[in-house]
């Protein structure tokens, strides 16, 4: 397993490394619209979505 390298730039001290992924422009537009409707930035909306999904998966695993 590899670990992400932290940015050693002092101006960004304390921030987690960025996560980059490629998505289609259409999907990006849908994500942007959903984030705007939720009143959140795209990054926070994606983090919220991920946390909800992880919680759902954990609940599903407990039920089994």
Largest sheet: none
SSE run: HH
Oligomeric state of this protein = single chain
Portion in helices? 55-70%
N- to C-terminal distance: 29 Å
Number of strands: 0
Structural class by helix and strand composition: mainly alpha
Global shape: extended
Report Rg: 16 Å
Q: pLDDT below 50 for ≥5 consecutive residues: which ranges?
A: none
What is the arithmetic mean of pLDDT? 85
Beta-strand percentage range: under 5%
Total of DSSP H or I helical runs spanning 4+ residues? 2
What does this structure look like?
With 64 residues, this protein is mainly alpha-helical. 56% of the residues lie in helices and 0% in strands. The protein has helices at 25-38, 42-63. Helix 1 (25-38) packs across helix 2. The longest helix has 22 residues, at 42-63. The radius of gyration is 16 Å and the shape is extended. The model has no long low-confidence stretch (mean pLDDT 85).
